[in-house]
Amino acid sequence: MLSRGFRPITRFSRFFSMNVSVGTPGEKITTKGVQFGETGKPIYLDNQATTPLDPRVLDAMMPYMTNQFGNPHSRSHSFGWETEKAVEKARRQLADLIGAEKREIIFTSGATESNNNIIKGVANFYKSRKNHIITSQIEHKCVLDSCRFLERQGFEVDYLPVNENGLIDLDQLRETIRPTTSIASIMMCNNEIGVVQPVKEIGQICREHKVFFHTDAAQAVGKMPVNVNDMNLDLISISGHKLYGPKGVGAMYIRRRPRVRLEALMSGGGQERGLRSGTLAPHLVVGLGAAAHVCSQEMDNDHRWISHLKDRFQSKITAELTHIKLNGDEASRYCGNLNYSFAGVEGESLLMAMKQVAISSGSACTSASLEPSYVLRALGLEDDMAHTSMRFGFGRFTTEEEVDFAADNLTTAVKRLREMSPLWDMIQEGIDLSSINWTQPH
Amino acid sequence: MLNLFGRRLCSKAAAVPLLMPRFRMNNMTLYRHNFMLNNLAMRSMCSKADPETVKITFLNLRDNSEKVVDAKIGEHLLEIAHSNEIDLEGACEASLACSTCHIILPDEIYDDLEYPCDEEDDLLDLAYGLTLTSRLGCQVFVTKDMDGMTVKIPEASRNFYVDGHVPKPH
C-alpha cells in the first residue's frame, strides 16, 4: 500500500478499511468467475450510494447493542437514563457539525423520512394560508415523490429547471416565488452529479420572501462545511449512512427561531418534540452522533484526501480518453463525485465490463430501471449521452491503488467497447448522431 | 387566597415553576371558592369602579357549545375560562409547564399579539391539533381589542382520555 501522504489516520484505517486482507499478499481471489485482488471483493467507488461504517463509529455503537439496552424515553430507572444521555450526546454532536442548537435536531430513520416529514409537514401545517411549493427537477426521488403526492392533494408545485451545469437560476427562483409559497426545497449536493447549489443565496432569497427554505443535505453534511445560520437554512435533511455512520438513521434540522412548524406524519407517544413519535434506536442515534463527530474532526483531511484521489483519477482518464463529458458544473461540485458520459459506449455494457469495480450508472435507486437518469435529462443531455453516464464516488477509505486500478480498468473497457461500436466510428467520422433517423422505413 | 394569587403570580412571571402549594378540592368547591375570592379581592383591591370588561365567546370544538362571558381586561384567558366554568384544562395552573390550555385565536387577534416566547412555543409544539393561530390560554391577556372575539377550544388535549373524561382544574 502506498503512503497516503496527508492522512494522519493512515495506519489506523489500514486495519479497518474494507481492504482487510483475506488472502496472502499478492494472491488473487476469484468470486463468481471474476478475479479480484487480495480482498476478494470489488473496489468500492460508489460512495454516493452509501459509505462504509467508520470503525470509530462502530466502537461508539457497540455498548448500545449489548448491555445498555434501555429505552431512552424511560424516565424511572437508570437503564433509560443512560441511553437518554447517550442520545442527547449524539444530538449535541450532530448539532455541532451543522452549527445548530441541540433542540433543533430531530432523529428519524433516514433522509427519505426527513424529506417526507419536512415537505409534507410544512405544506400541511401552513395550508390554510399557503398552498405553493417550489422544488427543482434534479431533487432526490423522495422529494419529488412527496411533491407529487401533495399535488394530488391540491397543492401547487413548481419544479424549477436547472441550467446545463446543473445549477438552478436564482432569478428564476425569485420569479417563481408567490405570496402563497410556503416552502422551497432545493438540495444542497446532488446525489448523481455532485453539483452543489448556491444554498446561501437561495436561503437569502427565501428569507426575503418569507418562504421556508429546506435543503436535502444528505450528500453534503459531514462532507463539506454546513452551517445552518451562515447558509440561511430553515430545515435540512441528514442521512447517517452517507457520512460513514449506520444505515437506518437520519435527522431533521428544524429552526426554532423564527420557528418552523410542521404537522407530524407519525402519530404516537410524542417523542422528539412530538415531531417523530416512536422509540429512538439508541445504537443508531449514537452511531450518527459519533459519525458526525468524526466528520467534524476529519473534515479537512477528508477533503484533501478525496480531492487528491479525484484529481488523480480525472487526470488519468482525461489523458487516455477523448469524447468524455463531465456532467454538472466543474467548479461548484463535491470533490468525491465524478459523473462522466462516454460517447459511443453503452452504459450497461460498461458496467458489465468493469466487474472488479463497484460503480453505478446513476443513483442507487434508479440502477434497477433502464430509463436514463432524469437528472441528466434535466441538464439537457442527449439520450445517448445520458445512457452512457457513470458515477464514480470516492470516500474516506478509498486508496490510491484502488483509484489507479479503476482508472486503468475504465480506460481499457471504454477503448475496447468503442472498438466494437459502430456509433464510435460514426462519431469519429464527425457524424452528428442526433441527426440520424434510426427507424427503418417499412 | 393563596391559590388565586399563586395563579396570577405564575402567569405573569413566565416559566417560574409552581411555588405555591396546590389546593386539591372538588370542582364545585374550587369554583365557588374562586368566585368568592374574586369578588372579595375585587372589592378590596379595586375600590373605585369595576374594571372594564369585554365580551368573549368560548367555542368548545368538542361539542360545539358556545358560551359568552364577560372578560376582565388584563386577565388571561385561562383564568377567565376557569372562573366561568369553561372546560379548559390548564393542568399546570399557568406556570408554563404544559400545553393543556391550548386555544385557537381569530387570525386578526393573533397577528396583533406579540410573538410567543420560546418556552410557550416549545409547549405549543406538543399541543394537540396545533394551528397557525394557536396560543396557550395562560399567556394571552385580555385587551380592549378582543371585544367580541371567539376563542376556540380544541377537541382534545395531550391527555389521552379517549373515553370522554374531562379532567377538572386542580
TrEMBL record, chain A:
Enzyme class: transferase
Keyword Ion transport carried by entry: no
One of the GO biological process terms: [2Fe-2S] cluster assembly
UniProt KW keywords: Iron, Iron-sulfur, Metal-binding, Pyridoxal phosphate, Transferase
Residue ranges of every copy of the Aminotransferase class V domain listed in the record: 43-404
GO cellular component, one term: mitochondrion
Pfam families in the record: Aminotran_5
MF (Gene Ontology): cysteine desulfurase activity; iron-sulfur cluster binding; metal ion binding; pyridoxal phosphate binding
Cofactor(s) it depends on: pyridoxal 5'-phosphate
EC number: 2.8.1.7
Family of the protein in this entry: Belongs to the class-V pyridoxal-phosphate-dependent aminotransferase family. NifS/IscS subfamily.
HAMAP family membership: Cys_desulf_IscS (MF_00331)
Family annotation (PANTHER family): CYSTEINE DESULFURASE (PTHR11601:SF34), CYSTEINE DESULFURYLASE FAMILY MEMBER (PTHR11601)
Name recorded for this polypeptide: cysteine desulfurase
Organism: Euplotes crassus
TrEMBL record, chain B:
Domain 2Fe-2S ferredoxin-type: 54-157
InterPro entries: 2Fe-2S_ferredoxin-like_sf, 2Fe-2S_ferredoxin-type, Adrenodoxin-like, Adrenodoxin_Fe-S_BS, Beta-grasp_dom_sf
PANTHER family named among the record's database cross-references: 2FE-2S FERREDOXIN-TYPE DOMAIN-CONTAINING PROTEIN (PTHR23426:SF72), FERREDOXIN/ADRENODOXIN (PTHR23426)
Superkingdom: Eukaryota
Assigned keywords, A-Z: 2Fe-2S, Electron transport, Iron, Iron-sulfur, Metal-binding, Transport
UniProt keyword annotation of Thylakoid present: no
CDD domains: fer2 (cd00207)
GO cellular component, one term: mitochondrion
Cofactors named for this entry: [2Fe-2S] cluster
Alphabetical GO biological process terms: P450-containing electron transport chain
Family: Belongs to the adrenodoxin/putidaredoxin family.
Any GO molecular function: metal ion binding
A Pfam family of this chain: Fer2
Protein name: 2Fe-2S ferredoxin
